[in-house]
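Lab meeting, action items carried over

1. Structure of the three-component assembly. Owner: GW. Status: complete.
Input record:
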Amino acid sequence: MSSTDHVKTLKIDGRDCSARAGETILDVARENNIPILRLCELEGLSTVGACRLCLVEIKGARKLLPACATAVDEGMEVTTNSERLQSYRRMIVEMLFTEGNHVCSVCVSNGHCELQAMAQTLGITHMHLPYRYPKKQVDASHERFVLDHNRCILCTRCVRVCDEIEGAHTWDVMGRGIDSKVITDLNQPWGSSESCTGCGKCVHVCPTGALFEKGRSVAEMEKRRQFLPYLTLMREERQ
Amino acid sequence: MVTYGSKPALPSADKRWKLVDATMRKAGGNGRGLIETLHTVQEAFGYLDEDALRYVALSLRVPLSRAYGVATFYHFFTLKPGGRHTCVICLGTACYIKGAQHLLETMQQTLSIAPGETTPDGEVSLLTARCLGSCGLAPAVVYDQEVAGKVDPASLRSHLEKWAHHDS
Amino acid sequence: MTPEELEEIRQNELEAQQSVPQRIHVCVAAGCLSCQSEAVKDALTREVDHRGLGGRCKVKGVGCMGLCSEGPLVSTHSGQLYQHVTAADAGKIIDSLDAAPVSRLAISTDIPFFERQKKIVLENSGTIDPERIEEYIAQNGYRALMRALTEMTPQEVIAEITASGLRGRGGAGYPTGLKWGTVAKAPGAQKFVVCNADEGDPGAFMDRSVLESDPHRVIEGMLIAAYAVGASEGYIYVRAEYPLAIKRLKTAIRQAERLGLLGADICGTGFKLRIDLRLGAGAFVCGEETALIASIEGKRGTPRSRPPYPAMAGLLGQPTLINNVETFANVPPILRNGSAWYAQIGTEKSKGTKVFALAGRVRNTGLVEVPMGISLREIVFDIGGGIPDGKQFKAVQTGGPSGGCLPAEALDMPVEYESLAQAGSIMGSGGMIVMDESSCMVDVARYFMDFCMTESCGKCIPCRVGTYQMHRILTAITEMTATEQDLKLMEELCDLVKNTSLCGLGQSAPNPVLSTLKYFLDEYKAHVHEHRCLAGVCQEKATV
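Predicted assembly:
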């Protein structure tokens, strides 16, 4: 195989980039400091392509494609920031805000929340969609952590980190559609879960204040994810 | 309590668990057989309770949350026992166009329950179906296992009365 | 099993059939069964025994005869068809075999409902006993498989399917030969063929009918496909709501295995295929290929991003061919009669026939098979017999929740993949619902959005929340509380959900709204501006 099979060149927002075959558009954008918004994707976890915020335009492609799940190709021309993409992103973030009950001013993650930051980046000041105001539960049965369904955006990072990194698979999603929610074991109080090791990885990968440590007050919950690339690297090395 | 490496204990002495075990064996004894196994449990017991989900999950070595996630994803599965009789109103397009909504309203008013619920006396469960595939006979209703076609509110009410009388 | 042995079974069966001069067929497909056709069959059988006619007259259960609304249906060897037959009619029907037909029950078969159809997929439906493999073999069944295995290379089979112009009958119309070629070329130690029988469209029962009436045809199609792509394991993913289809498939698989047509070393060629059933559990999204695969693997049926396509990495990460029931059912006749024969039926880009489940406000409801290119008008007014009760035609809906509602202006359009898509609907899997003036198109759009909202898997945000928000607006319109602003917002939501959703369910969910906005905007406007429902459906609801 010649080296040209391994190296791909492409254009992202007009900039020439080179990439290794198999890398995703998001990988390459990251290496080149081109910001692409995303919520479900997290380096070190498997890709689900669910939040649709990283959709990009690719010249010649009929559909928009998720940067996190689309491998680079030779000569690809990618646009990450058209007016159309921006307006879709604003609407998708609005959908999340109106789907749950997100009140930043009283949230432990105020100031450290990825959803909040995204709304600021996109310049969202008010909602075009009506709020749903669903009745949702808060599970404080775990001795160290709390799950607040009101703030959950169903990104499934907790599900993936628990399954792929911790190996416990305490979390999963139940139901479907707008009634989906994350659960521990047989949809039982988190504190009574038999499989939870209490490692707290789920809390720290959660992009919002849906999962937090007990005893934190408004704006006090800062997430620490330094462990994730480290653990991923060690695991790859072992295999 | 889970004992490492051993097969979980049967939830009860009920003979129907043998059917469940047979399905799991046939499906390869791994997570790929989860849905098949849940079908067998529901067919044998009428619904999936926590004990059943736990037993199946541990036997197939599937995380508990995954088993619960699967059981609640598919509408065919139910976690609650049904009534002695079930009445399924088809809400497929053909039935809807021919007035299935009126049938549903009739049932809701007569029984004072919502779709998916069972009357407090445990007699009748009211269910809806997305399409029974009996569109030529729209609107269709399934009384227990029997499909009836071209149903109207009057025949629906008389069927309910028949159930009530036979039971008394 | 050799070609000679197969021919011997065929000859024996034909002889056995011819030795009985009189035959009575009773439809025992789901539609007629729910009108007690089993009791009719039992009564006829009893009557024949009672009269000691056993050697001269045979009563047998057959698959769907098509005219489901008039069941139970019974036909005789002379071609006489009877409708609304009850057990009490058994004696009269047997009397009539040597005399004039029972005029009270008789129905003429030279009406457009029968004459305008062209049967390829349904050629055996209503004539053979679906629970006997010998009857399928007598109608040249498994001959195409034999031809493929003994006379053709896998490449030649794929070339033949490609040349026939067959396209996927599940709805999207992807060229079948191209799909087979991709799976055949994909590297992989183990390949799979999967038959998608998760017929989830509300208002569609074509696949169910084929499986109940002629299950071996689907199995033969899968066998040929497996040979062509190099697969050795197959699954039929069938709805648990179809118990009769499941039972007949199980019987058919057992029979084929017994004759050595399924299993190891088929026909002594070394080719092997095992077919297992997998039961769906009530999730429309599992009709989507990647969700279907997840479901077969025992998981929640949520779709994943494509590429990679299942043809490259499907079940257990291996190359997987997924075709729908009707697609597989087309394969044996194509191989038997040649691709040229098939390609001369239909239009330039849509070849062959299409089975439709005709239902709703139309006189003749049931299952019909028509050549591609026929107009919607011919289906609704000639075959369907038009609108009953003196009402006016309003719309015909194709493609279920992924399709659209087409108005009277579109009636002369030919039925083919491209033209239907251009008009804002899709071919879909074959549900065709006729609506008259008593249907409110906003209410219909709300109905379909309710379906999509309930069936959304919840994985991606645009579909999960978008279907909810669109449903909310449509409900507000039908309750006369929506504003012009809401209409604009809904159009925006349609555009977003269509272009950003992860899978086909979400991407096509706005279609029923977009097509009704396009053709029936006046109905939306009447609700919003005048608080009036032109069909009188919504007002009624508001007063309840």
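2. GW to write a short summary for the group page. Key points so far: The two ends of chain B are 45 Å apart (CA to CA). The longest strand of chain B covers residues 85-90.
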